[in-house]
Amino acid sequence: MLNNAKFDAAKGKTIPEKLGCIEIGDNVFIGCNTNLVAPVVIHNNSFIACGSTITADVPENTLAIARSRQLNKIDYYK
């Protein structure tokens, strides 16, 4: 994801200002050995299982388990 890329004439190449970002909300648990692949947003009150590779946004109040593929369980604690 390139935002506001600028061309540097002296170097002859485009310099990106931002390649992607990860946003993490409040009251979020991220288990050990978890990979967050930008750009993703982890919304409030979410739980990410250990050893997961997160490649998509995790909605609010969700348990994300991403071992072979990402699975989001909405309202998992209710």
Q: Helix and strand layout, with pairings?
A:
Blueprint: E1 6-8, E2 13-15, E3 22-24, E4 29-30, E5 35-36, E6 40-42, E7 47-48, E8 53-54, E9 62-66, E10 70-74
Parallel strand pairs: 3-6, 4-7, 5-8, 7-9
Antiparallel strand pairs: 1-2, 9-10
Q: Please provide the count of β strands.
A: 10
Distance between the termini: 35 Å
Strand content: 35-45%
Question: What average pLDDT do the residues reach?
Answer: 82
Count, helices: 0
Account of the 3D structure:
The protein has 78 residues and is an all-beta fold. The protein has no helices and ten strands. It has strands at residues 6-8, 13-15, 22-24, 29-30, 35-36, 40-42, 47-48, 53-54, 62-66, 70-74. It has a four-stranded mixed β-sheet with strand order 4-7-9-10, with no helix packed on it. It has a two-stranded antiparallel ribbon with strand order 1-2. It is elongated and about 55 Å long. The protein starts with 5 loop residues before the first strand and ends with a strand.
Can you tag this structure with a few keywords?
78 residues, 0% helix, four-stranded mixed sheet, 38% strand, mainly beta, two-stranded antiparallel sheet
Q: Quick gist of this model?
A:
The chain is mainly β and 78 residues long. Helices cover 0% and strands 38% of the residues.
